# Entry
Amino acid sequence: MFFLLTKHRCLVISDFEGKQHMDPLIVQGRDLIREAEKILVFSGAGLSTESGIPDFRSPGGLWSKYDPSDFYFDRIISDEKVRIKYWEMSTESYQVMRDAIPNRAHLAIKTLEDKGKLLAIVTQNIDSLHHKAGNSPERIIEIHGTAFSVSCLSCGKKYDRDEIDRRIESGVKVPYCDTCSGILKPDTISFGQAMPQDKMAQAIARANECDLCTVLGSSLVVYPAASVPLQAVESGAKLMIINRDETPLDYSADLVIHQSVSEALGSMVEI
Ligand SMILES: [Zn+2]
# Structure
């Protein structure tokens, strides 16, 4: 048997007699989606890498160029030199995210919403690709924040990221609040910074409510984020995991697919 990609981009298996069958794992995933009414999508870095955004933690990712321990929250707020380096790293990362476009899996999730099957998306990603794909903002819970806005840590004033990016492009090394001169920071959760309680509470509530939790491109090792699919399973939902590598929750999943997220989910939703 061998796999091939048809012009419709579905995963198809051809046997030695030339008969074609759908990959049984894709069929199982399609059936799980068909039976579900309230799907919770839990997405991680593996979904974004297929849109060309490198995983911070992978070889060649940002953490092979910068030392993440330089960017603990208390260091960012207490040391101007750290802030210079932080904005350099953060700008490099933002500019890749700004130019990235949703892949086939993001578009499949949008289709799930159009079909009335999507309860919510809980994402570890800060790249706004679920927004770009057209999902409703009220259904997207960004538990690690977003790189697309910036806030003043003193007065709370919000800035569009592109406005701050233009200041940096014009030579400013560390931008400050133009109202109170306070420290500005992208609205992402840094090391040593508390998770947003309200977003985690929303994510857990959706986990209790869903009937299928679909994990896409997350290795499920970063807590407390990874407690969301665990909660879904404990409350009786089915669990489907699509991730290139094994995860600690594979043993409790109804279906595990170690393949490309965009090929697998895209095929399930399109067939
Ligand atoms: Zn301010």
User: Anything to note?
Assistant: The first strand starts at residue 2 and ends at 5. The chain is about 35% helix and 20% strand.
